[in-house]
Amino acid sequence: MRKLPSLNALRAFEAVARHMSMKLAAQELAVTPTAVSHQVRQLEETIGAPLFERRVRSLVLTPQGAALLPVLSQGFDAFEAALGAIAHAAPRETVAISTTTALAACWLAPWIASFSASAEFDLRIHSADTTVAIPGEHADVAIRYGAGSWPGLVAERLFDDAYAPVWHPRLGLRHPDDLRSHPLIRSEWQASLRDVPDWTAWANAAGLKLGQTRELTFSDESHAIGAAFAGQGVALVNLPLIERELRNGDLVAPFGPILHRFSFWLVYPDASSRSGSARKIAAVCEWIRALPRPDVRGLFRDREQRQVHEQLERFAEQHGAGDAGAPEGEEP
User: Fold this and answer.
1) Residue 148 pLDDT exceeds 50
2) In sequence order, what are the residues at sequence separation of 6 or more whose Cβ sits closer than 8 angstroms to the Cβ of residue 253?
3) What torsion, rounded to 10 degrees, do the Cα atoms 76, 81, 85, 87 define?
């Protein structure tokens, strides 16, 4: 337990010593000069030493008083600064993005630091393969996979899907017929959408009969990607989500066809529904628009991969390159 004199007495001495005046100290502390004088004498009695020489019409600090003054002044300054910081520190707001588990892991996660370093808001990623209401309990904005039509919401296309078989290089597949010798990895995360890219659709597009091929099924596309990376089979996955793995050679996609069905969209409330969230919605939308878009077309230059590259180029020419920007009249 600290054995300290009265705080009021310490405040009175510090004010008198700073002003070298009982009257001015009393004005600062909103008490009478007599009360200040009483507190100073009480402090002197407590410590057993005089703090002032009381002369006619003036005060002079004793050596003990001169030693005590800077310690008290620094302490009171620190109290004032700490209490001010606590009183004026407003809690940081959080802005939440809802998106698919795979997109959160494969595209958003590597860039989160670029938002956190500059924004006045904290970022929360809500990853789920089911659609959540925005604005709502879980999210202020969303990145959704689909056709781009959600009533009451603004949707900006970010980039398109491009599904193809991928596997670890050590599996050594050279021709689509080789697929029959390996487990086919698939995911079921798009259960709410019709006509999603799957192995049946891909085999039909390739003119290939897969027969009774072994299958490995995940409810999450990022887990399917992980299984392919571990060499557990061949996965039909969205190439833009594994751009880094393709560039590094950790996964390969030597042949098509490429299946295109839907796009990823930045989705946010229209202006009439934003209430008090307009600033944080604008901040996170601006950040998402500035992120580098996946572009896997340049990865397929080798002769045996030319069909994949050419198909991606044709699709880009027909649909654009995932152009961004808010629709006219909408600026989140």
Assistant:
1) yes
2) 164, 165, 166, 239, 246, 300, 305, 308
3) 40
The span from the CA of 135 to the CA of 271, in Å, is 12
Domains along the sequence of the chain with CATH: 7-88 (1.10.10.10), 96-319 (3.40.190.290)
Residue 121: band (very low, low, confident or very high) from pLDDT cuts 50, 70, 90: confident
Tokens of 180: 């029959």
Q: Smallest Cα–Cα separation from 101: which of 238, 198, 234?
A: 238
Rg (the chain; Cα; Å): 34
3-state secondary structure of 86: helix
Residue with tokens 């904290």: 122
Q: What is the pLDDT of residues 256-303, one digit of tens each?
A: 889 999 999 999 988 755 566 788 899 999 999 999 998 877 666 554
Q: Take residue 218 and report the two structure tokens written for it.
A: 């995940």
* CB-count burial class (<10 Å; 0-12, 13-18, 19+) for 156: buried
Residue range 45-88, pLDDT digits in tens: 999 999 999 888 889 999 999 999 999 999 989 988 888 777 76
pTM, to two decimals: 0.66
Burial class (CB in 10 A: 0-12, 13-18, 19+), 260: middle
Closest by CA to 219, choosing from 110, 331, 126, 102, is: 102
Q: Which residues of 285-297 are buried (b: 16+ CB within 10 A; e: fewer)?
A: bebbeeeebbebb
What residues contact 258, with CB distance under 8 A and at least 6 apart? 162, 163, 164, 239, 308, 311, 312, 315
Exposure class string for 19-50: b at 16+ Cβ within 10 A, else e? eebbeebbebbebeeeebbebbeebbeeeeeb
| Side-chain-facing half-sphere of 117: CA atoms under 13 Å | 4
In the beta sheet, which residues pair with residue 238? 163
